[in-house]
Request: fold
Amino acid sequence: MGKIHQKTLQDLEFPTVLQQLMARCNTDLGKERVFDIAPLSDSESILQALGQTAEYLSSLISENRIPNHGFDSIGGDLKLLRIENTTLEISGFKRIASICNTVTTHKKFFKKFKEYYPLLFSASDEIETNTEIPKQIDAVIDRFGEVKDKASDSLFQIRRQMNQVKGKIGQSFASALNTYHGSDYLDDIRESVVENRRVLAVKAMYRRKVKGSVMGTSKTGSIVYIEPEVTLKYSRELNNLEFDERDEIQRILNELTANIRPYGSLLSNFQEFLTRIDITAAKAKYASDTNSLLPEINTEKRLYLRDAYHPLLYLSNKLKKAKTYPQTIELHPENSIIVISGPNAGGKSITLKTIGLLQVMLQSGLLIPVHERSSVCLFDTILTDIGDNQSIENHLSTYSYRLKNMNSFLRKCNEDTLFLIDEFGTGSDPELGGALAEAFLEVFYERGAYGVITTHYANLKALADELPHTTNANMLFDAKSLEPTFQLMLGEAGSSFTFEVAQKNGIPYSLINKAKKKIERGKVRFDATIAKLQKERSKMAKTGSRLQEEESKAREEAARLEKLNAKVKSKLENYQELYDHDQRMIQLGNKIDKAAAKYFQDNKKRILVSELIRIVETENSKRKKKTANQAKAERAKKAQVVQEVQKEVQVIREKKKVEKKKAIIKEKNKPRPIFKVGDRVRMHDGKAVGSIDSLEKNKAIVNYGMFTTNVSVDQLELVKS
Reply:
């Protein structure tokens, strides 16, 4: 793949995307390196970069979230390691240990979840881990950035001696302080610290009375700071030990630096790996903020962008809470060039920039804000001619510049090129410029290049109709209000609505009529016909939309009525069954009542029993006899119904439990009210309201009228202050 020119990236505002990407990086090195992002030269690298970004994006909403990759740059430390006999600072060792641990954590994570993140695992698998460096650093430096006592035996002995000497200094100083405390030699503050040594605060007039070394005086000169003679010997010993300590620490750090120096290139790889992860994470965050995804990448030279958004416009409108209109566009071998026409401020240039920017982003490894059913291909070259490019330095007019640009297009254009030209052919005499633009378009078409151009020229609209693989398109405009709808309509050229827009902006009708007479009658009729067609299309679109809404509503209403009808039918069947059952029970009851009345009169048990048996046999004859299998099936069906009911009950219980937990958490997170005596309160699990009689620590006595109770304030909620 050829390299995409920097001017193309500028035209499409790709550097602005990189600035927004930089704001989403965690590390300083990532923020610097993000501006190196550019369209990649081969399809394999593009697919790998896109795949890694898509994997990271999926982790943002997954339970298996990728660990934090933040690190402090070790660039300065690596430079020192390349110079012989240099020593790293303690902060440098801590940075190196941190970067090693972070890489190890990421390698372990990607190995564990390699099924979810195969491409990121593959990238991490190329890096070898090193756990020895952090171990060596940890053995020498503690988490506070101090060299440990046990970093070496010598250091341990020196520091032990230092502690002993410090103890002696403390004892001897206390002794001197007690000696002079009884006299009037010392100031009220008694002692101070000068150059990290304890000194006596002696009144200036008595400085010769106190034996020791003068360490300084107060600002006013009224106090002289003297280190007592008895502590001087120990202070000198401590100075010697401190010197030995510094020497030993330097030796330890020299040794540690020498141990780490051979791993310079490995540490550089670690930093490079984490920087790449930082940039990938920033791309994923940007994709999340712009609702971007990885569309299908095809090899059939088909560019189908469905519901595509311009990312910069989308984020800007998101902040303003304004609507952003998506565009749908398709380029393929049977429709390789689209000519967009229509009035100014209708969204032609934004549509053009959206296509170009999304293609550049995709080929730079960034996900794009399109519908998931979009399908895209890759181009070797993307050429753009967007905006007014007057060059004062080179004494070029807009048209001269554009002609130079077109010459460059002619050299580079082939079947693997995507070209995007805004206001094609403008800058010269409309008729002559239009003819030249027509010739350029024919060359681009013959070479099989893919492209989108915007124009007002009627001859280019006509050419797009004539060429079999070129399509006219227009940005829809509301013919009544003359307001843009920001919708792209393929298959039809657009009117510029020149005279209509002029009339709307208050230009006198007589002047517009005069202008119409000055141009060819055929052109006016051609533009008027296009305008009329657009108006008709706009009306049809509105009618179609309205009919679709009505049809959708009618379908919903029919479905609702059908559902209601089924419910009513089911209820009627249930009522009928219930009625039939009740009637049978009434008849059975009447028969038993008659038998009971007869028995009451003649008191003959045999006749009663035979009558009851006859009634039971008659009823049983009506019942259908079931086989063992049928009875078993019926029992199983009943059991299944019971099981389903139990499941539903369980689901309802679980929902209630979750709701209850949420309510408890919500209750815990609520700010606790500050209770006062006299407040009306009730307990969380009670309904009775009482008033607080007294408060002590975390307990309150609540008066309910008939009785009082002592409860914790955590169990109370405020009803009324």
